[in-house]
Amino acid sequence: MKIAMFSMGSESSKRIIEALKEHFDEVTHFDVRRVEMRIGKGKPELFYEEKELNEEFDCVYLKSSFRYAVMLKALASYYDGHAYMPIAPEAFTIVHDKVYTHISLEKAGVKTPETYITPSVKEAKNSLDKLNFPIILKIPGGTHGKGVMFAESPAAAAGILDTLSELRQAVMLQAYIETGGRDLRAIVVGDKVVATMARKAAKNEKRANVHAGGTTEAVELDSHAKKMAVKAAKALKAEICAVDILESVKGPLVLEANISPGLQGIMAATKRDIPTDIAKFLAKETKEFLNEKKSEEHAEKLIEETNEAQQIITKLDFRGDRVLLPEVVSKMASLKEDQEVILKISKGKVELEKS
Q: 65, exposed or middle or buried, with CB in 10 Å at 0-12, 13-18, 19+?
């Protein structure tokens, strides 16, 4: 099996690459900063260090800074359907926007802190009386705890909003959850939480983020919190990610997620070999992806030769709340875009016919 990893070559990425070599036949690393995509000649063309990159891979893992979200999204779209990818193309839009993240989590039934999103600073000020103080103000695109502000009173919040208005910055208002400056980070790999650490904010600091001077220790999530972390990852279309959680009197609340988390801190705290967890998961899922692909190709060949109906066993691929049919189904049934079809639906069964 062949895997390509696109990253910036961080220490975490290097550790993952070494682990991948134990589970894949070929492992190739590409620096995402040296990738270019050209569009306009009928199909997208990918270049690496000015040379065309047309090599096929069985698995593609994209792990890099939010600064390269556009390139990562382009790469994910390019390889989508051709290789197994643990992070869907839309995840790079969802996770790098706190507004989109909260809406996606809310739709999936994942509990989050009470949050207000308004169209303007004026409307944000009007919402201040709906919240109990202190509150948190967030810039939707902030990372590493940056763009997060604390307001103890309506007057303090109004002052921050005035400043953000001058900078033409969008803002979210969020209830402050008292946790003693502590939050939890869980690393989700597939259907499992493989490691969790507690982060404690530095003195006089509200953010528990390690980049803001916080300290860490290993902890074990209870089964409810583990299920919620996995559910959050699924809602954000990411099979591998970090999920940040607050422990509140109402139970665990998900703050946000990171699809390119640093692993050194949590590995030091938990002593868990997370790169190996990731490598094993990617190898298992890639094998399933390839077997499914072979099954579809075999079914397509059979129907071409015999013109008889064939059964295909496949996993459902959701786009939001909609199911995306496998490519082989569209080909075998000669389905075309905007074509009218008849759907017959009963419990546990769906039939599709051309009208």
A: middle
Instruction: State which amino acid sits at residue 22.
Output: E
Question: First vs last Cα of the chain: how many Å apart?
Answer: 42
Contacts of 266 (CB under 8 A, 6+ apart): 185, 187, 195, 196, 197, 216, 242, 272, 274
Nearest partner of 259 among 236, 280, 235, 281, judged by Cα: 236
**CA–CA gap between residue 20 and residue 33 (Å, rounded):** 21
Radius of gyration of the chain (CA): 23
Q: What is the pTM of this model?
A: 0.81
pLDDT-derived band at 143 (thresholds 50, 70, 90) equals: low
CA pair distance 134, 309, nearest whole angstrom: 63
Element containing residue 12 per DSSP (H, E): helix 11-20
Angle of helix 274-306 versus helix 11-20 axis, rounded to 10: 50
| Tokens encoding 252 | 């665990």
The DSSP code sequence of 178-236 is -SSSEEEEEEEETTEEEEEEEEEPPTT-----GGGT-EEEE----HHHHHHHHHHHHHT
Euclidean distance between CA atoms 273 and 15, whole angstroms: 9
Strands 148-151 and 59-62: unpaired
More confident residue, 338 or 106: 106
Domain residues of the chain, as ranges? 2-94, 114-175, 182-279
Q: Are 87 and 240 in contact (CB under 8 A)?
A: yes
The fold for domain 114-175 equals Dna Ligase; domain 1 (3.30.1490)
DSSP tag of 68: G
> Residues for the chain: how many in total?
355
Residue range 240-264: average pLDDT? 95
User: What whole-number distance in Å separates Cα of residue 344 and Cα of residue 150?
Assistant: 54
C-alpha span between 191 and 194 (Å, rounded): 9
CATH code of the domain occupying 2-94: 3.40.50.20
Please provide the CATH number assigned to the domain covering 182-279. 3.30.470.20
Show the tokens assigned to 106. Answer: 């809310």
